[in-house]
Structures are given as C-alpha cells and as structure tokens.
Write a structure and sequence with these properties.
Layout (H helix, E strand, L loop, with lengths): L1 H25 L16 E6 L6 E2 L24 E2 L3 H14 L4 E7 L6 H15 L39 H5 L3 H11 L5 E5 L4 H9 L7 E6 L9 E3 L2 E3 L2 H5 L1 H9 L10
Parallel strand pairs: 1-4, 1-5, 5-6
Antiparallel strand pairs: 2-3, 7-8
Helix pairs in contact: 2-3, 5-6, 6-8
Length: about 270
C-alpha cells in the first residue's frame, strides 16, 4: 500500500515539474506573431509526438509496439508514466524564435508516439493557442498508429503471396493518408519557398507524404529526423542499452522513407 502511495506521489511530482518547466519555457518570450519575417528565415513544419504534462503509456491507441530493451521483441507498452518533454520544449523554442523573426513556423502535425494522438493534440493546441496565442498556425492531427503491421508478419493472399507493403500501390501508400498528411502536401505545394520538415516523432506521416506524393520533394528544403545512432554503436541512456524510440515506433515507415527515390533528392539529417 505504501509503495503505491509513494509511486503516485512521485508521478504527481514529476508531472508538476514537467508542466512548470514547460510553462516557464513557453512563456519566456513574446507571444504575438510577427506580421512579416526577414528574407532567408527558415520556414519549418513540425511532425511531432508532443506530450508535455501527460501521464500515459507510449502509444498508438494503446497498441503501439514499444520496447526500451535492445534485446526484447516488440510488445505493447503498459507502463503509465510522465511522458517525454523534449518535443514540447522544441516546439516552444521554435515559437519563441518565430516571435523574434528568426524562424517561421508554418504548421504543426501531431502524431502518435509519446502518447496517444488525441491527448497529444490537446497538448499541441494548448501550447500553441493558449500559451503562445498563435491561432494563425495550423495544428492538424496526423497518424494515430503505424500504417503497416509491425506486431506480426505480413498478411498473405489465398494464393500464398505476401501482401505488398512498398510502392505506390502497396499497403502502406494506400492506407497511410490522413488529415495531417493532406495538410502537409497542401502547405508544401502552395508555399512561396521550400519548407524544412522537423520530424521529431515517429516517421509514419513523413514517409506517407513522400511515398504517395514523391513530386513534392522539390518543395522540401530538408528533413531533420530525431532518430540516429553511430554505425556499429548502440544507443545508451544512463548506461542502459536501448532502442531508438522514434524509428522503432514505425520501422517500416523509416525504411520506406530512407529508401525512397524522393528521399535521395532531399537533404536528410
């Protein structure tokens, strides 16, 4: 009983600390948007699993495969805990830089990952609309889950052939489009200059964009992905070997993105 009380108290304290830190960061600089931005200022689009202030499981509607152990197989995440705050800090800093005229935030597309998408939408809207008072920036929901099956093998036809995942007519491309991906396409195609995509969550939406609309590559300045490790090296956090979270949430999307013809024409880092 006492351990449960202590655990709940610890969770509450961590929640309050993360929320206070987020409030302090988001409120640090002026909130109002600039009427114009200087020439040459980067135009950026967020694909993010922002989850500041949430106590939840990682996930895509509670069924997302997650494991922090590099030797474990995929499993559903059942651990309820305060979620990562880095996406919210990044978004808050970008909005602060926007207010100073140093960058221009074009749009925000929350995606599943650190928490289920509905809750992440609430965080993104609170941070953008309430904290920073930016009703001019579109915030549209992206993927609620992976667009391809990762918890078990590929389905088969009665003929015995595997259902094809890759390609314009593959299962990924014909099922991955959502409101967020549609908005990404519209914002890019109508933009007066190329846009940098900050892909700081799972890669489902960005992979979908390039798989279904490869011609959009000319409108993308670069794609910055928060997922990497040195060749031959493992990712270590506090001395523990772990998997790369964003990539592992949808490795099929990551493989399709990095292997696409369009991606070969776009700087990715």
């Amino acid at each position: 009983m006492y351990s449960k009380i202590i655990s709940k108290s610890l969770l509450g304290m961590l929640f309050v600390l993360s929320l206070v830190n987020g409030l302090a960061l988001a409120s640090a600089l002026p909130k109002s948007p600039r009427s114009s931005h200087p020439e040459g200022v980067p135009l950026i689009m967020f694909s993010t699993d922002v989850a500041n202030g949430l106590i939840s499981t990682h996930g895509a509607q509670g069924s997302s495969p997650v494991s922090f152990s590099a030797t474990a197989t995929y499993q559903r995440d059942t651990a309820v805990a305060p979620q990562d705050v880095d996406d919210g800090f990044t978004l808050a800093m970008a909005l602060n830089l926007d207010a100073q005229g140093l960058v221009e935030v074009d749009s925000i597309i929350p995606t599943y990952g650190n928490a289920p998408l509905p809750e992440e939408m609430a965080v993104a809207l609170f941070l953008t609309r309430i904290m920073k008072q930016r009703p001019d920036i579109p915030v549209i929901p992206g993927a609620m889950a992976q667009a391809s099956q990762t918890l078990h093998g590929t389905s088969q036809w009665f003929s015995g052939a595997n259902v094809q995942i890759e390609g314009a007519n593959g299962s990924f491309a014909i099922s991955c489009r959502n409101s967020g991906v549609e908005m990404m396409y519209r914002r890019l195609i109508n933009s007066h200059k190329p846009i940098t995509i900050l892909a700081i969550g799972p890669l489902t939406d960005v992979a979908c964009l390039l798989t279904t609309s490869p011609e959009i590559k000319d409108k993308i300045a670069e794609i910055i992905i928060l997922a990497s490790r040195l060749e031959g090296k493992s990712v270590s956090v506090n001395g523990k070997i772990v998997n790369d979270f964003n990539f592992r949430m949808d490795p099929i999307a990551g493989a399709l993105l990095l292997g696409s013809e369009a991606a070969r024409k776009i700087p990715i880092r």
